[in-house]
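Project standup — Tuesday

K.O.: blocked on the structure for the chain from last sprint. Re-posting the sequence here as requested.
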Amino acid sequence: MNKVIVRWVFIFFSVSIALVSAAQEEGDGSPLTANLSVGYESDDNVTTSEIDSSSGISDEAIVTDLGLALNLGSNALGVELGFDFSHTDYDIQDAFDIQSNTFSLILDKELFGLNLMGIGLYTDVKLASVGLLDMTNYILSAGKLVGEKWYISPGVSFAEKDFDINNDRDADQYGIDISLFYFGDMFSFRILYRHEDEDTAGDETDYRASVYTVSIKGKAPSLDEKLEYQVKYQNNNKEYANVTQSIGNKRSDDKDTISLSTSYSFNNEIEFVGTYTYIDSNSNLSASDFDQNIFNMALHFQY
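H.V.: unblocked you, prediction finished:
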């Protein structure tokens, strides 16, 4: 049997027993929440977008995500400390195994009818167990409920990237975005526009990007209310400021991503999620010009 399947089955049964037992023993009202996701992934073109690496080879992987959140807030000010661990372990392409550890601080407050939020994130990313990059993010946003079903939220962000492998990619990234939400009885949707301006240590990788995202989420009509679906489309267009020497021209990337997912909640603690993602990446740099099909199925545990 494929080693990915063997490890997935082992991890699945181990964490299922541990988390369900812990959930039954844990009392209500705890300030600590935990989420664990264990899944199987099939990818027909394993890539690492952070360094423009596309293998053109299909592989399977175990994907594990763990999240912890500690609520320290009050009615006057919401405060949450968080930690997230993510690991993708490929069966054959070990050089593409990727792991990240993220520490977060989230502050939120209601003021003058606005939901104000500040987020600080620190992420350490490893590729094949070797340091790839450290990244610090700062995000500020303000949200406003319009009527009973509409919500609008503009935001600004700043990210500092420090690469261990290629220091020319060290960067400061500035972003501005605006999201529009609709919350209906049977479905909800979100429309997002984001603009990014990234200034890197090496001139070749300076770019500006426009990102458009549309997503819809709802319950399957006439079926079990525990069954939900989500459809998401994103277009990411990057225009690079300077000539890339390997192609003798300014680089231009245009990426379309479509994802379809369905989820089923067995109870308040356990949920199954299946997702199909198609990526059509068009670029005049060959390493970023590819198609990709990804199928993922996972069990999510929460307590």
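K.O.: great, moving the ticket to review. The two ends are 32 Å apart (CA to CA). Residues 119 and 169 are 24 Å apart (CA to CA).
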